[in-house]
């Protein structure tokens, strides 16, 4: 599954020593975080909306807030995790916005007008709060097109433009890093099925390459993801 | 207290909040009984609600909603929430998790507002400033620009818990979300509980919520269904699909 490569790309972005928060409706993020910790053996701590501190292991269920993750861990409430963010001690957050723009603004609120939206989205949750506060923001979007990677989002749910943190986006076409000094997105990863030209064609704002490498996945990594998601819930994230 | 009596504690136009998130520990037995009470024009406030909000919207009990996110995750958006917001049938104000937490903590502590970091730079700021729920201000000590969130004081909080004694001392096992603060902030607190325990259970032990905050205790075994109740039962996925009209 292509989404497995996305999981792998997310896992690669995590580093030793990081405290990582996983929110609601965050399948690729939770799989990526556990791959980083348990397969790549990165020394990270995983917390999240399920309020489990570093669960021993998980089985992906329809909710990434599944309280049964607590069967192998103590409780760490979101209020405490978010207080850590205000103290500058929460390292990584993941978000899956519908739109991302050239300035790191993201939209999870609505397509069209806020008052009478063409499409109402689920809402930003902690987006506005955490985007400027975490040290590393990892965005994902599995529908890389000019409708999702836009010059300017319809609504700024949240933004990292007033922060100095690192921002990445992992899509189904590329991995990109926001370069703050040049104020541009740089393509740092591609997939076996994607090219830089295709990424440019499908992005409304200008992007540049920065030695993009091809993201690969081993059989062992595939089996690891299958073990965490035996019901293949992640297949719902795949493009038709 | 019998459920019927507790239902009379919710009044027309009340601002209500409920326990849990998404498909977990929503006070469903109480929420499902609310339409019978005839109550209407409720306002609803929460961080990341799911099934309870969807049910109340379907039953047309709610006129305004203020939440940071409303999702059933793998099951998709809340269908009634989505259509009612898209058609302008409910008043909607999008909140932010960190701001909701600040506001409900201010309500719990009895202070008028709480500062919160982040959020500046979001288009949500001007919407909330217009509503009078947030204000950009300055840290009086450092002069730094920071957001103030007005205290959130719900009229009623309905909280489903694992154990409570007859006085209202309540214990939640597993994730708490902001339920402790909801119970401390709200003017009226209705606890529905899986189990009523003897008051001795809480001797020497801190309840998640002390009796002093609680106005009604209602026995409600399996009272979160079809949402999950840690560690007693998992979410009933078929029941959820049925409730959202996809079963």
Automatic annotation (TrEMBL), chain A:
Record's protein name: Acyl CoA:acetate/3-ketoacid CoA transferase, beta subunit
Keywords recorded for this protein, A-Z: Transferase
Top-level taxon: Archaea
Gene Ontology molecular functions: CoA-transferase activity
Organism: Metallosphaera yellowstonensis MK1
SMART domains in the record: CoA_trans
From TrEMBL, chain B:
GO MF entry, a single one: CoA-transferase activity
A UniProt-annotated Pfam family: CoA_trans
Keywords, ordered alphabetically: Transferase
Protein name: Acyl CoA:acetate/3-ketoacid CoA transferase, alpha subunit
Annotated organism of origin: Metallosphaera yellowstonensis MK1
High-level lineage: Archaea, Thermoproteota, Thermoprotei, Sulfolobales, Sulfolobaceae
């Amino acid at each position: 599954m292509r989404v497995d490569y996305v999981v792998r790309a997310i896992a690669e972005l995590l580093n030793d020593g990081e405290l990582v928060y996983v929110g609601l409706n965050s399948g690729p993020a939770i799989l990526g975080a556990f791959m980083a910790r348990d397969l790549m053996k990165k020394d990270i701590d995983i917390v999240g909306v399920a309020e489990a501190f570093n669960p021993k292991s998980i089985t992906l269920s329809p909710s990434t807030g599944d309280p049964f993750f607590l069967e192998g861990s103590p409780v760490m409430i979101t209020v405490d995790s978010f207080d850590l963010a205000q103290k500058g001690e929460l390292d990584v957050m993941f978000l899956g916005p519908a739109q991302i723009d050239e300035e790191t603004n993201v939209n999870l609120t609505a397509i069209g007008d806020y008052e009478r939206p063409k499409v109402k989205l689920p809402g930003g949750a902690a987006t506005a709060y955490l985007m400027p506060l975490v040290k590393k923001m990892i965005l994902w979007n599995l529908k890389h097109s000019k409708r999702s990677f836009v010059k300017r989002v319809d609504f700024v749910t949240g933004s990292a433009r007033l922060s100095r943190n690192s921002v990445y986006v992992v899509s189904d076409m590329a991995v990109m890093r926001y370069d703050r000094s040049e104020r541009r997105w740089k393509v740092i990863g591609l997939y076996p099925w994607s090219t830089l030209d295709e990424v440019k064609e499908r992005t409304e704002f200008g992007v540049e390459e920065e030695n993009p490498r091809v993201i690969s996945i081993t059989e062992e990594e595939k089996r690891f993801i299958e073990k965490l998601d035996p019901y293949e819930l992640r297949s719902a994230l795949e493009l038709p | 207290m019998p459920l019927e009596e507790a239902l009379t504690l919710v009044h027309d136009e009340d601002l209500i909040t409920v326990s849990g998130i998404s498909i977990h520990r929503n006070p469903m037995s109480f929420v499902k009984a609310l339409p019978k009470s005839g109550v209407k024009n409720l306002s609803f406030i929460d961080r990341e609600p799911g099934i309870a909000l969807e049910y109340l919207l379907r039953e047309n009990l709610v006129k305004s909603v203020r939440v940071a996110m409303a999702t059933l995750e793998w099951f998709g958006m809340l269908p009634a929430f989505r259509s009612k917001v898209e058609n302008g049938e409910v008043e909607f104000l999008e909140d932010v998790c960190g701001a909701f937490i600040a506001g409900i903590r201010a309500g719990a502590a009895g202070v008028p507002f709480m500062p919160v970091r982040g959020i500046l730079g979001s288009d949500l700021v001007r919407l909330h400033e217009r509503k009078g729920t947030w204000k950009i201000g300055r840290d009086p000590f450092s002069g730094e620009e920071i957001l103030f969130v007005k205290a959130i004081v719900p009229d009623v909080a309905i909280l489903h818990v694992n154990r409570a004694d007859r006085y209202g001392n309540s214990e939640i096992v597993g994730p708490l979300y902001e339920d402790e603060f909801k119970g401390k902030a709200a003017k009226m607190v209705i606890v529905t509980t899986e189990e009523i325990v003897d008051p001795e259970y809480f001797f020497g032990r801190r309840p998640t919520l002390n009796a002093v905050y609680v106005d009604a205790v209602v026995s409600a075994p399996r009272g979160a269904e079809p949402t999950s109740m840690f560690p007693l039962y998992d979410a009933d996925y078929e029941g959820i699909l049925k409730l959202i009209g996809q079963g």
